# Entry
Amino acid sequence: MNKIRIGFLSETSFFLHFNQLLEGIMQSAGQHNVDVVRLMTIHPNFVHHPDQMRLFIELTGRLKLDGIVYLGWMPIVGETAAAKTMFDPLGLPYVSLGKYHSEIPSVYQNGYKEIAKLIDHALTVHGVRKILFVHPINADDRIEGFRDYMKMKNLYDPKWEVTAADLGAYNVYDMDIRAEKVLSVIYDRNKLDPDCIIDLYSHEAAMLVQGLKSRGLKVPEKVKILCWEDVDTSRYCDIPITAFYFPFRELGFEAAEKLIAIIQGRNPPPVTEIAGRLVTRSSCGCHMHALALVGDERTKSAEAVPPPAPSAGATSRAEIRGDSGMDGCGSIDENWRRAISEGNDDVLIRYLENCFYYRQFRVQDIHSIRDHLLRLRNESRVQGREHPALREKTEQLSLKAQLLIQDKVEQLSGKMNLGLLEQSWANLNMNQFLATSFKLDMIFNVLATSLRRDGINCYLYTFREQGNNYDDLVLRFAFREGTVLELPEEMREFGRLKEVLFWKEDRQLIFSHLLCVRNEWIGVAFYEPGQMNERIYQDLSVQLASSIKSALVVKSLETANEKLAELDNIKNDFIANITHDFRSPLMIILNNTDLGLKYDGEADIDVIRKRYRIIFEASLKLKNTIDRLLDLAKMDSKGIAIHVCDIPLTLWLENIVEFYRSATINTGICITTDFPPHEIKDFYSDPEKLEEVFNNIISNAFKFIDPACGTIQIALRDLGEMVRIAVSDNGMGIPASKLEAIFKRFEQIERMEDRPLKGTGIGLAFSRQLISYLHGEIWAESDGPGKGARFVIELKKGKDHFTPEELAPPAGVSLPGQVKRQEVHFRLRADLAANRELMDVEALVSHNNEDGEFDYLKALIMIIDDNRAIREIEREYLEKSGYLNFILVADGKQGIEAAFSYHPDLIICDYDLPGMKGDELHDQLQRNPEFKKIPFIFLTALD
# Structure
């Protein structure tokens, strides 16, 4: 049979006595070699994830636990129906711990019956009658227990209750606030004068003691105080409080025993009640429990109900009571009798010293041994009434034993305080480092140091980006046996959690915590504890969650900052490009107009025609840039209206292809098609918007292919419910990292060595938005730089996906206006011509200087600009000023070659050249002594 694994689902403890529940469970688990997973929810009074219970229930299923012990008094499962709704879907056995739930196996203390012991002590021992009962925060069977017992004694009066309704908004888990309101209700509002107050919370009872003192009401002379929980708060209050011992450890042990029995197929009793006991202290007027035993010489008359068993490894309850031996040395009873009969106190003292040395005890365990020794003392005193020497031996032995016990208590208390101080400093130091470590690797380094010191194993899972469920969790940090584990990627998936956590044959205890920052769930932490103090792991989880969140926020901010810097660069490039796209055409228009006005005569018809053509081309480029910006602005503000009709797509594409072919006449560019032999039917779209997209894609292809041998293929496929159109070219290609980025506004791929990539970077972004309006998709494919590109468009067939407003009556193919077509045609031919001209170097030399002559008008001037019209403008201005000799060059590479070939006297250069910036060209030439003295002038549209 596989090893059993059970879960313990309860609230995170803020009081150490809750650890006793887990200690009891672990005692049972140790006897059966059962693994325990502690599922730690946050109390609803504190900041917690609103869906924490569902997340832990899902985690239970993912861990494939065999059963669950759950804390029955948690509000979310406080009633039977709520518990069954929560746990039944798991299909696992489950046991309620701490509260009786009908139809569910339960282990609990019967508060209805046990409350009578508190009341009876006040009535019978102290003779009080005006007993006031403070209700707990939530509904509880002890309320009815109080009422029914008081009615049975004919003492019930509802005025002696402070209810949740009386407290109103102050009925909260902040006991300081609640206690103050309780006293106000009793003394200020209701004007009551109780003899005794019974409160169910030890911390609230301690606050009542302080509050009564501030009102001048002395405890216990004026008012006696009793409470339900016998814990540290009641024990160490200024006036120690008489309390009812709650058997936490026994409850945990019996609950685990019951669940394990069910899992193993046995049939344990469905309900187990565990009784508590009253521990008297001075808040009710009694002496402390041990002090009462000192004066009690009635043989075995003192209360025989044993205290809780010691912690793991301590002397067993049977050994404390004298029912069995310890390591062959006998029991306390046996060694007491031997010490008395042999007259050798060292027999008992050495036995106790060995017990304290070899076993682990808590202060409560030592108190139990003290009480048992006092009972043995009383028995011996009774037996020695007629023997003064025996009574003297008894007193001497008892005094030595009590001194030894007092020393052990002081040692344990001091050790505990020292441990808490050391832990506090260690935690403070760690928290300071965690709080100021804004990177995950720094956080994990600090955490590893702390875990190694405390002997804790830890596994941290956090979300992938945008993750929000267990499948999105990844193991970020694994620490086991003092070492950070380096696990393969597949083992870091949350689906392999069981293999990571359960790595030992022996029993394991795992604490699980949701890592949350307010309502945000950021991960899960699992711990194999080095110490059983649950608060350590809760505090650590809170600090880790905060630190990890801070690190993620910092990382996000860094990423955002990088993105902003990238966007800032893109913006600057866009501004530079758009400035160039405005200034260059404007420069061409203004300067050609200026030249025409200054120098053209009526007879210069060919010159004027050429000038008008240049002005027209520049105006079209300027208009195209402005139109694209206006389209984007319109799309952003109110969208673009589409007008859909039935399109015979094959015929439509053939017409488009012919249009583009006509633009490539006299170039080396070849446009081919791969269309189906039949017409595609039932295809609806907006032909004008679709042609806009093709204009952008094919214009881009023209930019990136060689005008001497470029190829473009347009393919069409009928995919049934879809059509696919692909435009492929043999151009410069696209890096894999840019295949998606090119569809973002203002993004461009890097320029190639010999291609000028002027433009705004908005054409493809605009195309994608248009395709989305047409209910389609567009993407790019490429095998990388130098290997061409492929743009793919997929569009739905039919018209059901269009709105009635978008549909137009089918009236054949609606093509864009001829004027717009002519503009596109003219612009494409101009771009192709410009690309062809990039390969040309023009030498216009007519009158060289002779040897020994230097006429500056005969100087050889090299003009470098990738725009032919601008080269011509610069040459014409200089020519009109009398200069005679020119070298016209299109890019930096040609400029260097021409410099060596022609040795110019002056270089006028554009800055933003393809392949090589103007300053790079300048620097290369200046490094050569032959060109070092050549004057260099930059002319550019850039700032």
Remarks:
- The longest strand covers residues 509-517.
- Confidence is low (pLDDT under 50) at residues 298-329, 751-757, 810-816.
